[in-house]
Amino acid sequence: MENARRKSTAPPLYVIRNERLTPPPHLLAGERVILFDGECVLCRRLVRFLIRADWRKKIHLATVQSPAGQDLLRWAGLPTDNFSTIAYIANGEVSTRSTAFFAALGELGWPWRALLILRFFPRVLRDGIYNAVARNRYRWFGRLPSGTLPPDDGQGRRYLDRGRG
C-alpha cells in the first residue's frame, strides 16, 4: 500500500497510476515487467538485448498479445488492441513510451545505466522520436507472424506466461 500512495514526479500522461490500489495481476510485490509487441522485429531485438543486459533478472517480460499481457493492459487501463508502445509496470505505476524505456534502463547495470543521461532531453523530443519509430516499426524493421514465440530467455522464467501468446 505504501508504494501505491507514493507521488510520482512524471506528468500523469506518461505515468499512469492505478487508483484501484489493486496489485497488478501476475506480479508479486516488488516485481516489474515490460510489455512489448510480440510481432515487432525491433521490439524482439530490444528484448534480446534486455535479456542479456539484465543479468540480475530483475525485469519480467510479457508480450501484449499474451494472456498475461492482456490482463496487465486491462489492469493499467491501456488499450488491449492496436498497442503501439512499450509499457513498464513497477510499484503500482505504469510508464509508457520513452519513460518506460528509461525506467527499464535504470534497472540495468553499468554501462547501460550511463544511457540514462539521454532522459534529460525534453520529453516532447524523446517521445516524438519514439512515436515516429513506433508508427513505422513494421515498415522499417518487419513484422513477425502472429503466434511467433518471443526471444528465448535461456531458462523460461523471465516471461510471465513462459512466452506463449
TrEMBL record:
MF terms (GO), sorted A to Z: protein-disulfide reductase activity
Pfam name, any one: DCC1-like
Membrane-crossing segments per the record: none
Leader sequence segment: none
Coiled-coil residue spans: none
Name the record gives this protein: DUF393 domain-containing protein
Organism annotation: Acerihabitans arboris
